[in-house]
């Protein structure tokens, strides 16, 4: 179950000096020492000892680097996020608009172009997004077998990189492929239009009867939950598939009410299949320190996987870590209330939410498992990546840490 969040912010108390100083003189590696300082800084913040926390974060900021090893780069991003949290407190009463508040917890390199570019790099240099797309696509292919017209409702389409492989698979499996219509949703209408144009050209090259409908939705879960059904054109002869890859967590707020309303709304559309992919982490904990520790463990595994599989001088890795992961880490660590959007939950929470919203788990096929294994073997041939099948769903992680889950529902 999801925990309720408290909107209460810790009050800064300059006269509070009852907490111990950060530990010194560790008989361990410099990386472990810096990591412990990072945790100590988070503990000081949770104890409202903000002056001491600022001294520690200042030390961390000057001694860590985005160009070192994985531990150094991780500490750099987390110390930066802690600094943003501390600075946000300092300027909180001077904020004059919600847009200013939002920018205070964003990454400096946060223009739409750099974010989109870093997402494409993430898709290339790590297997996690491609694994999610490939597995969701196979679940959709299995569900639409034999249908003459399909409609895919895709939430948070972005550049639409998930769909060319699906189109190619559809074109190759039948001499008379079905009509395909994708309703792509997002917050930027121009991006959606460009995505639709690219997909349309690709579909034409395959000889597919394809149509893309861009649908701009507000960055507001209640808007999506209450107004979505009237915004979607559903045709009686179409088989509907709904794709929620790394999307549902964005609808979470203080509780799961909004996401349940959303799921019940799409349940009423009677889809043949609903695909869900999410990060396997609890970054939605209401207590800051527990959320921080969970995020630190999760992104340690992500950074270590990049360290082991991507060249040290890779500009793509730098973009992924500084822009994409940096944006996520800053939001998890520095933001509170409505500003906090990266509210990832573990698979068992999504199972409870999906079932209570009227959905049943559909086992992913053995062929989907073979495809996922082939993806790892051909493109990411590191023994560190671990693929598991549990509860009829797939989980991909690094070493002993599970990082992503993909499941199918109806």
Question: What features would you describe in this structure?
Answer:
The protein is α/β, with parallel strands linked by helices and 410 residues long. It has helices spanning 30-46, 50-63, 70-91, 98-103, 112-125, 128-143, 163-173, 189-206, 221-231, 257-267, 288-309, 315-334, 347-356, 366-379, and strands at residues 149-154, 179-186, 210-216, 239-245, 273-279, 361-362, 385-390, 393-398, 401-409. It folds into 2 domains: 30-124 and 282-339, no CATH class; 126-279 and 352-361, Vaccinia Virus protein VP39 (Rossmann fold). The chain contains 14 helices and 9 strands. Helix 7 links the parallel strand 1 (149-154) and strand 2 (179-186). Helix 3 packs antiparallel against helix 11 and helix 5 packs across helix 12. The two termini are 21 Å apart. Mean pLDDT is 86; it is low at 1-27 and 92-109.
The domain tally reads 2
Number of strands: 9
Low-confidence stretches: 1-27, 92-109
Content of β-strand: 5-15%
* CATH level 3 topology of the largest domain: Rossmann fold
Structural class label: alpha/beta
User: For the record, what is the CATH homologous superfamily label of the largest domain?
Assistant: Vaccinia Virus protein VP39
In the CATH classification, which architecture of the largest domain applies? 3-Layer(aba) Sandwich
Q: What attributes does this structure have?
A:
2 domains, nine-stranded mixed beta sheet, globular, 50% helix, alpha/beta, Rossmann fold, 9 strands, 410 residues
TL;DR?
With 410 residues, the chain is of the alpha/beta class. The chain has 14 helices and nine strands. It starts with 29 loop residues before the first helix and ends with a strand.
